[in-house]
Amino acid sequence: MAMELRLPVVRKPLSESLGRDTKKHLVVPGDTITTDTGFMRGHGTYMGEEKLIASVAGSVERVNKLICVKALKTRYNGEVGDIVVGRITEVQQKRWKVETNSRLDSVLLLSSMNLPGGELRRRSAEDELAMRGFLQEGDLISAEVQAVFSDGAVSLHTRSLKYGKLGQGVLVQVSPSLVKRQKTHFHDLPCGASVILGNNGFIWIYPTPEHKEEDAGGFIANLEPVSLTDREVISRLRNCIVSLVTQRMMLYDTSILYCYEASLPHQVPCPGLPFPRPPPRYRDRVVGADWIRRTALSGVWSTFSEILVMFSMSVPGLGGAGGAWWD
């Protein structure tokens, strides 16, 4: 009868073996990733005393013999084909400067965009003079990364009708590492709102349009009044995204929708609540009047009411039957 005996063997730690089918390997600056000299160092690593050492805090990623560390919180590093949401910061000669959460301002060339109406022709001097009429400082746009220069700057284009100027909505800024890469980053959620998950960490939430203006060429923004129901949905989606970011969870359409559905039972009816007034020290000032105006026009009234009620109920003496905290 044959018998097979196996003796215990000391296993190599993860930092030395760096297996491909293991869990995520988290490191901090100064940690030894591997002592095997057969690996090549990538971003976030450096060689020291024949060891590969991490220079940033993040997760170790391996592609064949290349090892790099993906930082948990960093600036956006553009890649060709990425979908980004940015803000126009400057109008220059035949180009716009765009803030895209990267180390350098991105560039949108006049020749890399559709003309109003989708007209296909060469850009003329009249088009250059009318650039500020197309896009001006402060406008939000959605675009695609066309090229990445040697210094890390990003070149954008908006040649598709799904890109262009953004209208009414809410902008949420998160870490680019939390946005999951997908085939499409434009999602129409069944709750009545749509989101654009920019690879650069800028997320745009807006009411789902009934019909899209295809003849506008991406320049006509919808400025119709947004209903209270849509504003409540947008506010709830925004808070769901912030909650997911707090827990360091990946952001994509399914995770946002699951979080939204889980938050529906937790709500406070708004009609029975008093209109918020500023603290007494601001009532007789212009600041107080401006505070009321901005509160009334904002789309986060339901969220503010929930926070206000929870705050007054959690702290004794700040609410209840006798009145509210601002009285």
Automatic annotation (TrEMBL):
Keywords: Cytoplasm, Exosome, Nucleus, Phosphoprotein, RNA-binding, rRNA processing. Belongs to the RRP4 family. InterPro entries: Exosome_cplx_N_dom (IPR025721), Exosome_RNA_bind1/RRP40/RRP4 (IPR026699), KH_dom_type_1 (IPR004088), KH_dom_type_1_sf (IPR036612), NA-bd_OB-fold (IPR012340), S1_RRP4 (IPR048565). One of its GO terms (cellular component) is nucleolus. GO terms for molecular function: RNA binding. Its main location: cytoplasm. PANTHER family: EXOSOME COMPLEX COMPONENT RRP4 (PTHR21321:SF4), PNAS-3 RELATED (PTHR21321). Residues 75-146 form the RRP4 S1 domain. GO terms for biological process: CUT catabolic process; exonucleolytic trimming to generate mature 3'-end of 5.8S rRNA from tricistronic rRNA transcript (SSU-rRNA, 5.8S rRNA, LSU-rRNA); nuclear polyadenylation-dependent rRNA catabolic process; poly(A)-dependent snoRNA 3'-end processing; TRAMP-dependent tRNA surveillance pathway; U4 snRNA 3'-end processing. CDD domains: KH-I_Rrp4_eukar (cd22525), S1_Rrp4 (cd05789). Residues 169-209 form the K Homology domain. It holds the Pfam family ECR1_N. This is Exosome complex component RRP4. Component of the RNA exosome core complex (Exo-9), composed of EXOSC1, EXOSC2, EXOSC3, EXOSC4, EXOSC5, EXOSC6, EXOSC7, EXOSC8 and EXOSC9; within the complex interacts with EXOSC4 and EXOSC7. The catalytically inactive RNA exosome core complex (Exo-9) associates with the catalytic subunit EXOSC10/RRP6. Exo-9 may associate with DIS3 to form the nucleolar exosome complex, or DIS3L to form the cytoplasmic exosome complex. Exo-9 is formed by a hexameric base ring consisting of the heterodimers EXOSC4-EXOSC9, EXOSC5-EXOSC8 and EXOSC6-EXOSC7, and a cap ring consisting of EXOSC1, EXOSC2 and EXOSC3. It is found in: Cytoplasm; Nucleus, Nucleolus. Residues 26-63 form the Exosome complex component N-terminal domain.
